Amino acid sequence: MRLPLSLNEGAFRAVIFTIGLVVVWTGLNVGLGGIATLGLQGSTDFVMATDPVAYAAHDSHVRFLGGVWLGVGFIYLAGALKLRALKVAIQVALALTILGGLARFSAMRPDVLFGPDILGSFLAEVVLMPLLLLWSTRVGR
What is the distance between the alpha carbons of residues 125 and 132, in angstroms, rounded to a whole number? Predict the structure, then answer.
């Protein structure tokens, strides 16, 4: 049974909006908190700098990446509201999220990747996002 386009589109918008909220939350956490984060996802006492100058440079890079992630979240939120106008932007954001998930393999730490702290995010990035990318090709026509 095929869902009517309006129901299918409405469900897609709701999912993308929800994902946007999560991405904005995590983007703020890292973009404003740097390596140590703001603590919105748990304890911030997991890192200690042994070289404050190098730490500050890396922290700045992490804040930049958090800001980029925050921007991706805004694309999801805006796209949920203006699906037809921003469909391609949503698809690019989904593809970038998939790429980020695949980049996790570069650490070559399956114990971390498949551990309880990362597994949910990783599965969202490499399973859910490709499904949403496919779904996006069928909505907002």
Answer: 10
Using one digit for the tens of pLDDT, what is the confidence trace for 109-126? 999 999 999 999 999 999
CA distance 138 to 3: 11
- Looking at residue 7, its pLDDT comes to 64
The Cα–Cα gap between 26 and 108 comes to: 23
Spatial contact of 77 and 66, defined as CB atoms under 8 Å apart = no
Token pair 């918008």: residue? 13
- The angle at the Cα of 64, spanning 38 to 47, to the nearest 5 degrees, equals 45
Residue with tokens 């990783």: 122
Q: What is the model's pTM?
A: 0.90
Rounded Cα distance between 85 and 21, Å, is: 20
CB-CB contact of 27 with 67 (8 Å): yes
Tokens, residue 36: 């140590």
Q: Report d(CA 73, CA 2) in Å as an integer.
A: 30
Extract the tokens encoding 66: 């958090």
The answer to whether 68 and 33 are in contact (CB under 8 A) is no
For the residues 9-22, what does the mean pLDDT come to?
97
